[in-house]
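Backbone-to-sequence.
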Protein backbone atom coordinates (compact mmCIF):
# COMPACT_ATOMS: atom_id res chain seq x y z
CA UNK A 1 0.00 0.00 0.00
CA UNK A 2 1.25 3.48 -0.84
CA UNK A 3 3.05 5.48 1.82
CA UNK A 4 0.49 8.31 1.99
CA UNK A 5 -1.99 5.85 3.52
CA UNK A 6 0.26 5.60 6.60
CA UNK A 7 1.54 9.19 6.66
CA UNK A 8 0.89 10.68 10.11
CA UNK A 9 0.34 14.32 10.97
CA UNK A 10 2.13 16.17 13.75
CA UNK A 11 0.03 17.74 16.46
CA UNK A 12 1.27 21.22 15.54
CA UNK A 13 0.36 20.69 11.89
CA UNK A 14 -3.08 19.37 12.78
CA UNK A 15 -3.76 22.29 15.10
CA UNK A 16 -2.66 24.93 12.59
CA UNK A 17 -4.71 23.35 9.80
CA UNK A 18 -7.83 23.03 11.94
CA UNK A 19 -7.47 26.66 12.94
CA UNK A 20 -7.20 27.80 9.33
CA UNK A 21 -10.21 29.46 7.78
CA UNK A 22 -13.29 30.69 9.66
CA UNK A 23 -13.34 29.92 13.38
CA UNK A 24 -16.15 28.29 15.33
CA UNK A 25 -17.41 30.11 18.41
CA UNK A 26 -15.87 28.82 21.67
CA UNK A 27 -18.93 28.70 23.89
CA UNK A 28 -18.75 25.40 25.84
CA UNK A 29 -17.45 25.21 29.41
CA UNK A 30 -16.78 21.96 31.34
CA UNK A 31 -20.33 21.45 32.63
CA UNK A 32 -21.86 22.42 29.32
CA UNK A 33 -19.80 19.64 27.76
CA UNK A 34 -21.06 17.21 30.41
CA UNK A 35 -24.62 18.27 29.57
CA UNK A 36 -23.87 17.80 25.88
CA UNK A 37 -22.63 14.27 26.55
CA UNK A 38 -25.51 13.37 28.87
CA UNK A 39 -28.01 14.94 26.50
CA UNK A 40 -26.82 12.83 23.57
CA UNK A 41 -26.34 9.63 25.54
CA UNK A 42 -29.66 9.32 27.34
CA UNK A 43 -32.12 8.68 24.57
CA UNK A 44 -33.47 5.91 22.36
CA UNK A 45 -31.21 3.27 23.86
CA UNK A 46 -32.97 3.67 27.20
CA UNK A 47 -36.44 4.81 26.19
CA UNK A 48 -36.95 2.39 23.27
CA UNK A 49 -34.36 -0.35 22.73
CA UNK A 50 -34.16 -1.35 26.40
CA UNK A 51 -37.55 -3.04 26.02
CA UNK A 52 -36.58 -4.83 22.79
CA UNK A 53 -33.26 -5.94 24.28
CA UNK A 54 -34.97 -7.36 27.36
CA UNK A 55 -37.89 -8.99 25.55
CA UNK A 56 -36.01 -10.58 22.67
CA UNK A 57 -32.51 -11.29 24.00
CA UNK A 58 -31.70 -10.91 27.69
CA UNK A 59 -34.81 -10.84 29.90
CA UNK A 60 -34.13 -9.19 33.27
CA UNK A 61 -30.45 -9.77 32.48
CA UNK A 62 -30.68 -6.63 30.34
CA UNK A 63 -29.40 -4.88 33.47
CA UNK A 64 -26.16 -6.85 33.04
CA UNK A 65 -26.15 -5.90 29.36
CA UNK A 66 -26.16 -2.22 30.28
CA UNK A 67 -23.35 -2.81 32.80
CA UNK A 68 -21.24 -4.79 30.29
CA UNK A 69 -21.69 -2.05 27.70
CA UNK A 70 -20.79 0.56 30.34
CA UNK A 71 -17.57 -1.27 31.25
CA UNK A 72 -16.53 -1.47 27.60
CA UNK A 73 -17.38 2.20 27.20
CA UNK A 74 -15.47 3.01 30.40
CA UNK A 75 -12.22 1.64 29.01
CA UNK A 76 -12.80 3.47 25.74
CA UNK A 77 -13.81 6.62 27.60
CA UNK A 78 -10.53 6.69 29.53
CA UNK A 79 -8.64 6.37 26.24
CA UNK A 80 -10.74 9.15 24.70
CA UNK A 81 -9.93 11.34 27.70
CA UNK A 82 -6.17 10.82 27.32
CA UNK A 83 -6.20 11.56 23.61
CA UNK A 84 -8.54 14.55 24.03
CA UNK A 85 -6.13 16.05 26.56
CA UNK A 86 -3.24 15.54 24.14
CA UNK A 87 -5.02 16.49 20.92
CA UNK A 88 -7.67 19.13 21.68
CA UNK A 89 -8.80 19.32 18.07
CA UNK A 90 -12.28 18.93 16.56
CA UNK A 91 -12.78 15.63 14.76
CA UNK A 92 -12.74 13.17 17.67
CA UNK A 93 -11.36 9.72 16.79
CA UNK A 94 -10.60 10.87 13.23
CA UNK A 95 -8.10 13.47 14.44
CA UNK A 96 -6.58 11.08 17.00
CA UNK A 97 -6.05 8.40 14.34
CA UNK A 98 -4.42 10.93 11.99
CA UNK A 99 -1.73 11.67 14.59
CA UNK A 100 -1.30 8.08 15.81
CA UNK A 101 -1.78 5.77 12.82
CA UNK A 102 -1.83 7.73 9.60
CA UNK A 103 -4.09 9.29 7.02
CA UNK A 104 -5.64 6.09 5.68
CA UNK A 105 -6.69 4.87 9.11
CA UNK A 106 -7.94 8.38 9.91
CA UNK A 107 -10.09 8.36 6.77
CA UNK A 108 -11.54 4.95 7.64
CA UNK A 109 -12.46 6.05 11.16
CA UNK A 110 -13.84 9.36 9.88
CA UNK A 111 -16.00 7.48 7.39
CA UNK A 112 -17.05 5.14 10.20
CA UNK A 113 -18.02 8.14 12.35
CA UNK A 114 -20.32 9.29 9.55
CA UNK A 115 -22.06 5.93 9.89
CA UNK A 116 -22.16 6.17 13.68
CA UNK A 117 -23.56 9.67 14.01
CA UNK A 118 -25.88 9.73 11.01
CA UNK A 119 -27.44 6.33 11.62
CA UNK A 120 -27.75 6.99 15.35
CA UNK A 121 -29.57 10.26 14.66
CA UNK A 122 -31.88 8.29 12.36
CA UNK A 123 -32.53 5.68 15.06
CA UNK A 124 -33.37 8.33 17.63
CA UNK A 125 -35.65 10.11 15.17
CA UNK A 126 -37.42 6.80 14.50
CA UNK A 127 -37.91 6.30 18.24
CA UNK A 128 -39.17 9.89 18.59
CA UNK A 129 -41.72 9.10 15.91
CA UNK A 130 -43.01 6.15 17.93
CA UNK A 131 -43.59 8.29 21.02
CA UNK A 132 -45.15 11.04 18.91
CA UNK A 133 -47.63 8.61 17.37
CA UNK A 134 -48.47 7.19 20.81
CA UNK A 135 -49.04 10.67 22.23
CA UNK A 136 -51.28 11.70 19.34
CA UNK A 137 -53.28 8.50 19.82
CA UNK A 138 -53.79 9.45 23.48
CA UNK A 139 -55.31 12.70 22.22
CA UNK A 140 -57.60 10.90 19.80
CA UNK A 141 -55.53 11.66 16.70
CA UNK A 142 -54.64 8.73 14.44
CA UNK A 143 -52.21 9.11 11.57
CA UNK A 144 -52.18 6.94 8.47
CA UNK A 145 -49.94 4.01 9.53
CA UNK A 146 -48.36 3.99 6.07
CA UNK A 147 -46.78 7.34 7.00
CA UNK A 148 -45.53 6.27 10.43
CA UNK A 149 -43.51 3.09 9.79
CA UNK A 150 -40.38 2.14 7.92
CA UNK A 151 -40.73 1.44 4.20
CA UNK A 152 -42.33 -1.89 3.24
CA UNK A 153 -43.20 -2.80 6.84
CA UNK A 154 -46.63 -4.43 7.08
CA UNK A 155 -49.14 -2.19 8.85
CA UNK A 156 -52.83 -2.51 9.60
CA UNK A 157 -55.11 0.12 8.08
CA UNK A 158 -58.25 1.57 9.65
CA UNK A 159 -60.45 -0.92 7.77
CA UNK A 160 -58.48 -3.88 9.15
CA UNK A 161 -56.64 -4.67 5.92
CA UNK A 162 -52.86 -5.03 5.75
CA UNK A 163 -50.60 -2.88 3.58
CA UNK A 164 -46.96 -1.99 3.13
CA UNK A 165 -45.85 1.26 4.78
CA UNK A 166 -44.52 4.12 2.65
CA UNK A 167 -42.09 5.89 4.98
CA UNK A 168 -41.79 7.30 8.51
CA UNK A 169 -42.81 10.94 8.07
CA UNK A 170 -42.59 12.19 11.71
CA UNK A 171 -38.92 11.18 11.89
CA UNK A 172 -38.14 13.44 8.93
CA UNK A 173 -39.85 16.39 10.59
CA UNK A 174 -37.95 16.11 13.89
CA UNK A 175 -34.62 15.86 12.05
CA UNK A 176 -35.52 19.00 10.11
CA UNK A 177 -36.41 20.85 13.32
CA UNK A 178 -33.12 20.00 15.03
CA UNK A 179 -31.11 20.83 11.90
CA UNK A 180 -32.72 24.28 11.88
CA UNK A 181 -31.87 24.66 15.58
CA UNK A 182 -28.20 23.95 14.82
CA UNK A 183 -28.16 26.35 11.91
CA UNK A 184 -29.21 29.33 14.04
CA UNK A 185 -25.96 29.11 16.04
CA UNK A 186 -24.28 27.04 18.77
CA UNK A 187 -24.56 29.69 21.50
CA UNK A 188 -28.33 29.87 21.22
CA UNK A 189 -28.90 26.15 20.67
CA UNK A 190 -26.61 25.13 23.57
CA UNK A 191 -28.85 26.97 26.03
CA UNK A 192 -31.88 25.16 24.65
CA UNK A 193 -29.97 21.88 24.94
CA UNK A 194 -29.14 22.52 28.62
CA UNK A 195 -32.80 23.08 29.47
CA UNK A 196 -33.87 19.95 27.62
CA UNK A 197 -31.25 17.80 29.40
CA UNK A 198 -32.45 19.07 32.78
CA UNK A 199 -36.02 18.17 31.82
CA UNK A 200 -34.94 14.70 30.68
CA UNK A 201 -33.17 13.94 33.97
CA UNK A 202 -36.21 15.18 35.90
CA UNK A 203 -38.42 12.76 33.93
CA UNK A 204 -36.14 9.82 34.68
CA UNK A 205 -36.03 10.63 38.39
CA UNK A 206 -39.83 11.06 38.51
CA UNK A 207 -40.59 7.81 36.67
CA UNK A 208 -38.15 5.89 38.87
CA UNK A 209 -39.65 7.28 42.07
CA UNK A 210 -43.24 6.54 41.01
CA UNK A 211 -42.47 3.02 39.78
CA UNK A 212 -40.34 1.79 42.70
CA UNK A 213 -43.34 0.75 44.88
CA UNK A 214 -44.76 -1.26 41.95
CA UNK A 215 -41.73 -3.49 41.35
CA UNK A 216 -42.62 -7.19 41.47
CA UNK A 217 -39.62 -9.29 42.53
CA UNK A 218 -41.06 -12.28 40.63
CA UNK A 219 -40.30 -10.47 37.37
CA UNK A 220 -36.57 -10.90 38.08
CA UNK A 221 -36.78 -14.72 38.07
CA UNK A 222 -35.04 -16.19 36.23
CA UNK A 223 -32.68 -13.26 36.02
CA UNK A 224 -31.05 -14.74 32.91
CA UNK A 225 -33.68 -16.88 31.12
CA UNK A 226 -32.38 -20.16 29.67
CA UNK A 227 -31.13 -20.11 26.12
CA UNK A 228 -33.66 -21.23 23.49
CA UNK A 229 -31.07 -23.23 21.58
CA UNK A 230 -30.18 -20.35 19.28
CA UNK A 231 -27.22 -18.06 19.88
CA UNK A 232 -28.30 -14.69 21.21
CA UNK A 233 -31.78 -15.76 22.33
CA UNK A 234 -31.48 -15.54 26.11
CA UNK A 235 -28.80 -17.21 28.21
CA UNK A 236 -25.45 -15.41 28.52
CA UNK A 237 -25.19 -15.13 24.72
CA UNK A 238 -28.47 -13.23 24.86
CA UNK A 239 -27.04 -10.87 27.46
CA UNK A 240 -24.09 -10.20 25.14
CA UNK A 241 -26.37 -9.81 22.11
CA UNK A 242 -28.45 -7.29 24.05
CA UNK A 243 -25.26 -5.46 25.03
CA UNK A 244 -24.43 -5.13 21.35
CA UNK A 245 -27.89 -3.81 20.53
CA UNK A 246 -27.98 -1.23 23.32
CA UNK A 247 -24.32 -0.26 23.02
CA UNK A 248 -25.36 2.75 21.02
CA UNK A 249 -27.24 3.89 24.14
CA UNK A 250 -23.83 4.99 25.46
CA UNK A 251 -22.89 7.02 22.41
CA UNK A 252 -22.60 10.55 23.64
CA UNK A 253 -19.40 10.90 25.59
CA UNK A 254 -17.42 10.64 22.35
CA UNK A 255 -19.54 13.47 20.93
CA UNK A 256 -17.86 15.68 23.54
CA UNK A 257 -14.50 15.20 21.85
CA UNK A 258 -15.87 16.48 18.52
CA UNK A 259 -16.59 19.85 20.18
CA UNK A 260 -12.95 20.71 20.93
CA UNK A 261 -13.07 23.82 18.76
CA UNK A 262 -16.33 24.88 20.41
CA UNK A 263 -14.81 24.56 23.93
CA UNK A 264 -13.27 27.46 25.84
CA UNK A 265 -10.50 25.35 27.43
CA UNK A 266 -10.46 22.06 25.47
CA UNK A 267 -7.42 20.44 27.09
CA UNK A 268 -8.99 20.70 30.54
CA UNK A 269 -12.70 20.56 29.77
CA UNK A 270 -12.91 17.80 27.13
CA UNK A 271 -11.59 14.98 29.42
CA UNK A 272 -13.88 16.22 32.21
CA UNK A 273 -16.87 16.27 29.87
CA UNK A 274 -16.14 12.76 28.53
CA UNK A 275 -15.71 11.02 31.88
CA UNK A 276 -18.38 13.04 33.70
CA UNK A 277 -21.09 12.27 31.15
CA UNK A 278 -20.15 8.57 31.02
CA UNK A 279 -20.36 8.12 34.81
CA UNK A 280 -23.72 9.88 35.08
CA UNK A 281 -25.33 7.91 32.25
CA UNK A 282 -24.02 4.52 33.46
CA UNK A 283 -25.64 5.08 36.87
CA UNK A 284 -28.92 6.24 35.30
CA UNK A 285 -29.09 3.24 32.94
CA UNK A 286 -28.45 0.62 35.60
CA UNK A 287 -31.18 2.00 37.87
CA UNK A 288 -33.74 2.74 35.17
CA UNK A 289 -33.45 -0.61 33.37
CA UNK A 290 -33.92 -2.40 36.72
CA UNK A 291 -37.16 -0.51 37.25
CA UNK A 292 -38.46 -1.33 33.76
CA UNK A 293 -38.03 -5.10 34.02
CA UNK A 294 -39.11 -5.03 37.67
CA UNK A 295 -42.52 -3.53 36.89
CA UNK A 296 -43.27 -5.28 33.57
CA UNK A 297 -42.64 -8.93 32.69
CA UNK A 298 -39.94 -8.96 30.02
CA UNK A 299 -42.13 -11.00 27.64
CA UNK A 300 -44.42 -7.96 27.28
CA UNK A 301 -41.51 -5.87 26.04
CA UNK A 302 -40.39 -8.12 23.17
CA UNK A 303 -41.81 -6.01 20.35
CA UNK A 304 -42.34 -2.81 22.27
CA UNK A 305 -40.57 0.36 21.16
CA UNK A 306 -42.20 2.41 23.95
CA UNK A 307 -41.34 0.54 27.19
CA UNK A 308 -41.77 3.60 29.41
CA UNK A 309 -45.35 4.05 28.22
CA UNK A 310 -45.99 0.34 28.84
CA UNK A 311 -44.67 0.62 32.39
CA UNK A 312 -46.87 3.61 33.18
CA UNK A 313 -49.92 1.89 31.71
CA UNK A 314 -49.13 -1.13 33.90
CA UNK A 315 -49.31 0.93 37.08
CA UNK A 316 -52.41 2.78 35.81
CA UNK A 317 -50.99 6.30 35.83
CA UNK A 318 -52.05 7.34 32.36
CA UNK A 319 -52.11 11.07 33.08
CA UNK A 320 -48.45 10.97 34.05
CA UNK A 321 -47.73 8.88 30.98
CA UNK A 322 -48.81 11.74 28.73
CA UNK A 323 -46.44 14.13 30.49
CA UNK A 324 -43.61 11.61 30.26
CA UNK A 325 -44.15 11.07 26.54
CA UNK A 326 -43.97 14.82 25.98
CA UNK A 327 -40.81 15.01 28.08
CA UNK A 328 -39.17 12.10 26.26
CA UNK A 329 -39.98 13.65 22.90
CA UNK A 330 -38.41 16.92 24.00
CA UNK A 331 -35.46 14.99 25.46
CA UNK A 332 -34.80 13.30 22.14
CA UNK A 333 -34.15 16.72 20.67
CA UNK A 334 -30.95 16.99 22.73
CA UNK A 335 -29.82 13.57 21.49
CA UNK A 336 -30.31 14.40 17.82
CA UNK A 337 -28.79 17.84 18.44
CA UNK A 338 -25.52 16.39 19.74
CA UNK A 339 -25.27 13.73 17.04
CA UNK A 340 -25.80 16.16 14.18
CA UNK A 341 -23.37 18.60 15.82
CA UNK A 342 -20.70 15.89 16.05
CA UNK A 343 -21.27 14.79 12.47
CA UNK A 344 -20.73 18.29 11.11
CA UNK A 345 -17.54 18.77 13.17
CA UNK A 346 -15.98 15.56 11.84
CA UNK A 347 -16.85 16.56 8.27
CA UNK A 348 -15.38 20.02 8.88
CA UNK A 349 -12.09 18.56 10.14
CA UNK A 350 -11.84 16.18 7.19
CA UNK A 351 -12.59 18.99 4.73
CA UNK A 352 -9.83 21.14 6.25
CA UNK A 353 -7.45 18.22 5.72
CA UNK A 354 -8.49 17.98 2.07
CA UNK A 355 -10.10 14.56 2.48
CA UNK A 356 -13.61 15.93 1.92
CA UNK A 357 -14.78 18.62 -0.54
CA UNK A 358 -14.11 22.20 0.59
CA UNK A 359 -17.80 23.02 0.81
CA UNK A 360 -18.00 21.02 4.08
CA UNK A 361 -15.62 23.62 5.55
CA UNK A 362 -17.85 26.55 4.59
CA UNK A 363 -19.37 28.43 7.55
CA UNK A 364 -22.29 30.80 7.45
CA UNK A 365 -20.80 34.30 7.98
CA UNK A 366 -23.46 35.31 10.52
CA UNK A 367 -24.08 32.14 12.59
CA UNK A 368 -20.61 30.55 12.12
CA UNK A 369 -22.25 27.18 11.47
CA UNK A 370 -21.56 24.71 8.61
CA UNK A 371 -24.84 25.10 6.74
CA UNK A 372 -24.03 22.75 3.85
CA UNK A 373 -22.80 19.97 6.14
CA UNK A 374 -25.96 20.19 8.26
CA UNK A 375 -28.13 20.09 5.14
CA UNK A 376 -26.45 16.99 3.69
CA UNK A 377 -26.63 15.21 7.06
CA UNK A 378 -30.34 15.99 7.33
CA UNK A 379 -31.01 14.44 3.92
CA UNK A 380 -29.00 11.28 4.69
CA UNK A 381 -30.42 10.76 8.19
CA UNK A 382 -33.97 11.44 6.97
CA UNK A 383 -33.74 8.76 4.28
CA UNK A 384 -32.45 6.20 6.80
CA UNK A 385 -35.00 7.10 9.49
CA UNK A 386 -37.86 7.04 7.01
CA UNK A 387 -36.98 3.71 5.41
CA UNK A 388 -35.26 1.41 7.94
CA UNK A 389 -36.61 -0.15 11.19
CA UNK A 390 -35.11 1.01 14.49
CA UNK A 391 -33.49 -2.33 15.42
CA UNK A 392 -31.46 -2.32 12.17
CA UNK A 393 -30.45 1.30 12.74
CA UNK A 394 -29.47 0.51 16.33
CA UNK A 395 -27.25 -2.43 15.39
CA UNK A 396 -25.57 -0.48 12.58
CA UNK A 397 -24.83 2.35 15.00
CA UNK A 398 -23.46 0.00 17.64
CA UNK A 399 -20.98 -1.77 15.39
CA UNK A 400 -19.76 1.52 13.95
CA UNK A 401 -19.28 2.92 17.43
CA UNK A 402 -17.45 -0.17 18.64
CA UNK A 403 -15.03 0.03 15.72
CA UNK A 404 -14.32 3.68 16.57
CA UNK A 405 -13.68 2.74 20.21
CA UNK A 406 -11.27 -0.05 19.24
CA UNK A 407 -9.24 2.33 17.06
CA UNK A 408 -9.15 4.98 19.82
CA UNK A 409 -7.84 2.42 22.32
CA UNK A 410 -5.25 1.31 19.77
CA UNK A 411 -4.29 4.95 19.24
CA UNK A 412 -3.38 5.33 22.93
CA UNK A 413 -1.11 2.29 22.69
CA UNK A 414 0.58 3.55 19.54
CA UNK A 415 1.22 7.06 20.89
CA UNK A 416 2.52 5.72 24.21
CA UNK A 417 5.13 3.78 22.21
CA UNK A 418 5.85 6.32 19.43
CA UNK A 419 5.62 9.58 21.38
CA UNK A 420 6.01 8.93 25.11
CA UNK A 421 7.35 12.47 25.59
CA UNK A 422 4.17 14.20 24.36
CA UNK A 423 2.43 16.11 27.21
CA UNK A 424 -0.68 14.37 28.50
CA UNK A 425 -3.15 16.31 30.60
CA UNK A 426 -4.82 13.03 31.56
CA UNK A 427 -3.30 9.54 31.61
CA UNK A 428 -5.26 6.31 31.69
CA UNK A 429 -4.61 4.45 34.96
CA UNK A 430 -2.71 1.16 35.09
CA UNK A 431 0.19 2.06 32.82
CA UNK A 432 0.43 2.21 29.05
CA UNK A 433 -1.17 -1.12 28.15
CA UNK A 434 -3.78 -2.35 30.65
CA UNK A 435 -6.76 -0.07 29.94
CA UNK A 436 -6.28 0.17 26.14
CA UNK A 437 -5.97 -3.62 25.80
CA UNK A 438 -9.01 -4.19 28.02
CA UNK A 439 -10.89 -1.66 25.91
CA UNK A 440 -9.98 -3.45 22.69
CA UNK A 441 -10.94 -6.85 24.11
CA UNK A 442 -14.22 -5.73 25.69
CA UNK A 443 -15.38 -3.76 22.64
CA UNK A 444 -14.23 -6.56 20.36
CA UNK A 445 -16.18 -9.17 22.32
CA UNK A 446 -19.37 -7.15 21.96
CA UNK A 447 -18.71 -6.78 18.21
CA UNK A 448 -18.30 -10.55 17.85
CA UNK A 449 -21.73 -11.06 19.43
CA UNK A 450 -23.45 -9.10 16.64
CA UNK A 451 -25.15 -10.85 13.73
CA UNK A 452 -23.72 -11.47 10.27
CA UNK A 453 -26.07 -9.01 8.54
CA UNK A 454 -24.76 -6.17 10.71
CA UNK A 455 -21.16 -7.11 9.93
CA UNK A 456 -21.94 -7.20 6.20
CA UNK A 457 -23.45 -3.71 6.35
CA UNK A 458 -20.30 -2.45 8.07
CA UNK A 459 -18.00 -4.06 5.48
CA UNK A 460 -20.01 -2.61 2.59
CA UNK A 461 -19.92 0.87 4.15
CA UNK A 462 -16.16 0.68 4.78
CA UNK A 463 -15.55 -0.67 1.26
CA UNK A 464 -17.36 2.36 -0.18
CA UNK A 465 -15.20 4.59 2.02
CA UNK A 466 -11.96 2.97 0.83
CA UNK A 467 -12.98 3.50 -2.80
CA UNK A 468 -13.71 7.18 -2.14
CA UNK A 469 -10.36 7.57 -0.37
CA UNK A 470 -8.30 6.19 -3.27
CA UNK A 471 -10.37 7.94 -5.93
CA UNK A 472 -10.64 11.39 -4.29
CA UNK A 473 -9.25 11.92 -0.79
CA UNK A 474 -5.76 10.55 -1.38
CA UNK A 475 -5.20 12.94 -4.29
CA UNK A 476 -6.61 16.01 -2.52
CA UNK A 477 -5.01 15.50 0.89
CA UNK A 478 -3.26 18.65 2.08
CA UNK A 479 -0.71 16.54 3.91
CA UNK A 480 0.25 14.62 0.78
CA UNK A 481 0.30 17.82 -1.33
CA UNK A 482 2.65 19.47 1.16
CA UNK A 483 4.96 16.45 1.10
CA UNK A 484 4.88 16.38 -2.71
CA UNK A 485 5.76 20.10 -2.88
CA UNK A 486 8.76 19.53 -0.64
CA UNK A 487 9.91 16.48 -2.61
CA UNK A 488 8.27 16.22 -6.07
CA UNK A 489 9.90 12.84 -6.74
CA UNK A 490 7.83 11.21 -3.98
CA UNK A 491 4.37 12.18 -5.25
CA UNK A 492 1.80 9.43 -4.62
Amino acid sequence: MNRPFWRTKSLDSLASQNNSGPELKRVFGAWQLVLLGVGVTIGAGLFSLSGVAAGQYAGPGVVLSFIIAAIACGFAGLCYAELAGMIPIAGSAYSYAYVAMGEGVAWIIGWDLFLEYTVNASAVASSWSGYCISLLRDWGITLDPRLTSSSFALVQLADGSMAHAWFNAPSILILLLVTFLLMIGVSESSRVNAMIVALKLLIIISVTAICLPHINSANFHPFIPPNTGHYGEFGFSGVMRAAGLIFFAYIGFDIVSTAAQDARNPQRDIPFGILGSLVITAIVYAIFSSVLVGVVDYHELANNANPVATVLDKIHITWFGVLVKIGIMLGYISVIYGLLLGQSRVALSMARDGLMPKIFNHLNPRTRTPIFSHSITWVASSVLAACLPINVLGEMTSIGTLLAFVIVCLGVLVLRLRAPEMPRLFRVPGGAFLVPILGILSCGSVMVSMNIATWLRLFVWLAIGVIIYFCYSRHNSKLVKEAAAENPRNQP
